[in-house]
Write a structure and sequence with these properties.
mRNA binding, HTH La-type RNA-binding domain-containing protein, La_HTH, Alpha-Beta Plaits, nucleus, La_dom_prot, 15 helices
Length: 400
């Protein structure tokens, strides 16, 4: 049967041992802490760490687990077109795909050719471009036909190579579709029709439908390089006049698909190109050529049959990623679908923010739980105290 001394709690036994040592009285070996063992020649020695070290070790384990979960959640949030940036958990930024556009207009040689100058600026103001160009459409005020400073036009990427500035002004004065004011401003001779909307998305649909019969689709132009836009324009020039050549790109990565939409000046010119025999080759490569109407109808049939998935935005796909002779410019954002893309990205941001907020709430819960489970926390101490009180009551019951 156990003696009264053996029934004492471990803490009291250790306290009695310390008092005996202080008074110089002979003592028994120091009682071992709960959870320790004493085997062989090391019997009676502590093999476990101190209570403080145990607490620190357990806290580190909980923290490491929480950090690991946060890191894993961060990788989940990184997927879907966004990359980690600064600013803690919310530090995200959009990826920049502009480097995937290889055509570089700034490498073009300097020129003062009057025909090239007029051709380029007349393209900017042509119906096929200006109704879809947010920047230019706003500048001219739609049907108001307000003039624009030639210096603004001259600062477009594809215009900077034309030097000197006086040569640009002189060339535009000889244009039959543009007029130049005494203040060196340029405007259309014929204004846009009354009621022309300033909503480029509406204009894209209207103009795409109207120009479809004089447009063709061609594929097989290979990979893009710094002169691809200009080279393809030169390839189609003998069959024109050509209103625009638009390189088609993936969205949002902006990789060139190797195909283009070409708008000719008239329906007859487009049909003449389609009827050419043998079909023209581009750098000795066979081209797949068809009318734009046939291409669009074929895609619609494939979507209906489930062969391909519909694009997020039909007209973004339809218009491609190039701007013909206009090219990407520092004015207007370099993309006539800029506003719609921004709306799409804003909606994506809202969804992504919601995911991040949800992730932060989960992380906060884990952090709170880790703090509560840490041995030194108030909640943990309360639980331990409750456990000790339960042990005391149990001991008293056993004694009774």
């Amino acid at each position: 049967m156990a003696t009264e001394a053996e029934k004492k709690p471990l803490a009291e036994k250790q306290k009695d041992h310390a008092l005996a040592e202080a008074n110089g009285a002979p003592t028994e070996p120091k009682p071992a802490e709960t959870g320790t063992t004493a085997d062989g020649p090391d019997a009676g020695k502590e093999k476990s760490k101190t209570a403080k070290e145990k607490d620190e070790l357990q806290t580190r384990k909980w923290r490491d687990k929480a950090d690991e979960d946060n890191h894993r959640d961060g990788h989940r949030r990184d997927r879907g077109g966004f990359k980690r940036g600064g600013g803690g958990r919310g530090g995200f930024q959009r990826r920049d795909y502009s480097g995937n556009v290889k055509t570089n207009y700034e490498d073009l040689p300097e020129s003062n050719d009057a025909d090239d100058i007029r051709k380029q600026v007349e393209f900017y103001f042509a119906d096929s471009n200006i109704v879809q160009d947010k920047f230019l459409l706003t500048q001219i005020g739609g049907a108001e036909n307000k003039p624009i400073s030639i210096k603004v036009i001259h600062n477009f990427k594809r215009m900077r190579r034309f030097q000197p500035y006086s040569a640009v002004v002189a060339a535009l004065k000889d244009s039959k579709v543009l007029k130049v004011t005494d203040d060196d401003e340029v405007a259309r001779v014929e204004p846009l029709p009354e009621g022309t909307t300033d909503d480029v998305d509406v204009n894209v649909k209207v103009w795409t439908d109207a120009s479809k019969t004089r447009s063709i689709y061609a594929k097989g132009f290979g990979l893009e390089n710094s002169t691809t836009q200009m080279d393809i324009e030169a390839f189609f020039e003998p069959y024109g006049p050509v209103s625009s050549v638009r390189l088609r790109r993936t969205h949002p990565e902006k990789h060139f698909k190797g195909s283009v939409f070409v708008e000719f000046g008239t329906d007859e010119l487009a049909q003449d190109f389609l009827n050419l025999e043998p079909k023209p080759k581009y750098e000795n490569n066979e081209l797949k050529i068809m009318s734009k109407t046939a291409y669009v109808d074929g895609k619609a049939e494939d979507i209906k049959a489930g062969k391909i998935r519909p694009s997020e935005d039909y007209y973004r796909r339809d218009g491609g990623g190039g701007r013909g002779r206009g090219g990407n410019r520092n004015y207007g954002g370099g993309d006539r679908y800029r506003d719609r893309r921004h709306r799409d990205l804003d909606e994506h941001d809202e969804r992504d923010d919601s995911r991040r907020r949800s992730g932060r709430r989960d992380a906060d819960k884990r952090d709170k739980y880790a703090d509560e489970q840490a041995p030194g926390s108030a909640k943990k101490r309360t639980a331990e105290d409750d456990g000790e009180q339960g042990d005391t009551k149990k001991s008293k019951t056993e004694d009774e």
